[in-house]
Structure prediction request, 525 residues.
Amino acid sequence: MTTEIILAGFGGQGILFAGKVLAYCGLIDGKELSWLPSYGPEMRGGTANCSVCISDEPIGSPLVTAPNCLIAMNGPSYHKFVDTVKPGGIALLDSSIVEETCDRKDITAISLPATNMATKAGLNGAANMILLGKMLAETKLFSFAVVEKAMEKCIPPKRAHLIASNLKAIQIGMEQK
Amino acid sequence: MKGNEALAEAAIRAGCKCFFGYPITPQTELSAYMAKRMEKSGGVFLQAESEIAAINMVLGAASTGVRAMTSSSSPGVSLKAEGISYMAGSDLPAVIINVQRGGPGLGSIQPAQSDYYQATHAMGHGDFHILVYAPCSVQEMVDVVMLAFDKADQYRIPVMILADGLLGQMMEPVTFPEPRTELPDKSDWAACGHGGKREHHVINSLYLDAPLLEAKVQERFKRYAVIEETETDAELYCCGDAEIVVTAYGASARVAKSAVTAARRKGIQAGLFRPKTLWPFPKKELCEATKHAKQILDVEMSMGQMVDDVRLATECRLPVAFFGRTGGVIPTPEEVLAEIEKLAGGAE
Prediction:
């Protein structure tokens, strides 16, 4: 089985990082995986998205064109990708930023005010992890134990203090009804 | 690990002691990794004032017998062309990496494969060839870097790894071989200092005596003939009974592989031929792969460059269709599948 995921938003929202955590989960879980970023020349404020493939078989094209799962963290990303989600797939939206509601009936659309939730929990900037946590809970792709190990790989030792807050945000997302 | 970083780590493990470069997207992570790690591994990292300076530093370092390398992306590689020709003319081994982006001119920073002609047919002025490898995964990039340094030394030629922005930027799991501890002895030609105890070793590409230059070039072409005979490599996927063979290298081969797999599921007898060496082009392997083929579909991230070599290798015995996206646009498996279906429909 292959799960194809697109994560998209503004540069600076941690889109590529969230994808990286997902990719490392695959590595730890013994899956085939690929992570492919796509971004403009800007550092912040521009659009950023990444394709992640998690599979039991070797991965062909790493560029996802029809995802099983979309995480959209801003309006332009939502518009760009929502129609590409495969029927039966999931679209997760950060409703603190994305104003639209999804009217597609053939996919599961979940709106979560992730940015506001992160701020309220004292985890500024961790909206990406809240959405990732929710996605993991919905898809049952990886367990929290796998994410814990992946997070240690993704965050360099000198920033180790950030591991706990990122994991906390994942947990908030996972427990979200 | 990112493809660009994997290329750099592999080079260090291959015994590369000198890296000279000038920053350019989408190969930046390669230089950045070298800047961090090269000194710790006892080598030299130097950001030159330009691509032209960098390639000439590679020429100088290679002259002393050390393993040297540079990397760039399309516009930067064009600037290096002069130095690469000089190295070929001086019989110097070195590794040059091109993480291709869209062109011509400054083009775009997105992945492309529009430097095929340049790499395989015209990497500078003069009568010469360079060995060109085309990996298609992060793991293969690692393997090919080790191989590239060995082959450069073995034949005393510059070797290019023709990657692209997709392979450079993507992350995949990778395992590295143990670092090389024993490197080839080059004391019979390298200009490495001898305290006046032997004749000078001269590294030079200038021969004003025409017959002498002709002899030099002819000797070099004898080496090229050996390379053409022994160094070709290709992957054949589902080619055994394939009626439609898709030819593609690097990133577009990954897309094509997905399309071929999908075509097989639909009952179309499709296969994939993926050259791993672009020069020399694996002609024999392509003939083997197309034994039962009725048609060929060449897929590239360009307006069609390798397609000429495909036609030459098969001596135009088979119709060759082409599908390409360019300028930094990556073809999708669905698009390639549609092309395969079109051909399959036409054949019936």
Summary: The two ends of chain A are 27 Å apart (CA to CA). Chain A has a mean pLDDT of 94. Residues 10 and 147 of chain A are 24 Å apart (CA to CA). The first strand of chain A starts at residue 2 and ends at 10.
